[in-house]
Amino acid sequence: MTTASSEPVGPVDSSRVPRYAGPATFARLPRLDEVSRADVAVVGVPFDTGVSYRPGARFGGNAIREASRLLRPYNPAQDASPFALAQVADAGDIAANPFDINEAVETIEASADALLDTGARLMTLGGDHTIALPLLRSMAKKHGPVALLHFDAHLDTWDTYFGAEYTHGTPFRRAVEEGILDTSALSHVGTRGPLYGKQDLDDDAKMGFGIVTSADVLRRGVDEVADQLRQRIGDRPLYISIDIDVLDPAHAPGTGTPEAGGLTSRELLEILRGLATCNLVSADLVEVAPAYDHAEITSVAASHTAYELTTIMSRQIAAARG
After folding, report:
1. CA 18, CA 166: separation in Å to the nearest integer?
2. What does DSSP say about strands 181-191 and 146-151: parallel, antiparallel, or unpaired?
3. pLDDT digits (tens, 9 = 90+) for 56-98
4. Residue 73 DSSP symbol
5. Using an 8 Å Cβ cutoff, are 41 and 32 in contact?
6. Dihedral sign, Cα of residue 138, residue 88, residue 231, residue 227
7. How far is CA 204 from the centre of its chain?
8. d(CA 110, CA 117)
9. Strand intervals (E) in the chain
10. What is the distance, to the nearest Å, from the Cα of residue 58 to the centroid of all Cα atoms in its chain?
């Protein structure tokens, strides 16, 4: 086991154990119970009771883990070996009640609290976007209201669905109402597609959200977009929430509410790399629904996205330790 002063335990050596063999932890990293601590805990939340269209994201976390078998320990895009800089471990899954959304939200929040109390940052694998609300509640307890970058085809700031306040389309309205977001530093990235009405945009603006559409990314380019986002966030504690449907269905068919005209996987990864200097306290990646995938297209994109986010956190943890 690792100690606070020992070297992190990294992935299984692929020159000794083939990548397709052995347990499918994220990036073939140790389980949390195999190390004494984790600086970054990769945790699954197999919950999709909050979806409004196609179900199946409850299987997303394990699909991402399977696709992550091919990730390697050195990240040349960020010139870092994230698993050597900090202890990253797979914390397994949070078992949330699939029949009671309110209870599930409470369970996710309590489990996130427990992991954060160990000093870990979270890289959470969903699950549907409902899970962002309890995760943000946990973040606010630790950091106060956090800045939010929300990568998604959709706003997810609607009020209710069928009278339900907790769904995958409502988490960020609830978060604003509860005062757990820093409303001076909120942005959607990659939004597109039809809405219920212009009032959706008006309501969203009143909550404090800025919007960078997928068309903005196309016309302005990833460097300009990343620079704009960095300026908006500043040095505030930042939480990043990524719905895989921010990607075009050509790059992520395996999701519940696909919309044409999305980002490429390359654009998403480059924008995230451009945020490496931001104070990323935790992140989630949601809405991977492998039943609609083909040849692991979506889960491969998701695994690389989680890898970039994990690299950013590991670099910052190592820098803070000097």
Report:
1. 42
2. parallel
3. 999 999 999 999 999 999 999 999 999 999 999 999 999 999 9
4. S
5. yes
6. negative
7. 21
8. 11
9. 40-45, 88-93, 121-126, 146-151, 181-191, 209-213, 237-243, 279-286
10. 15
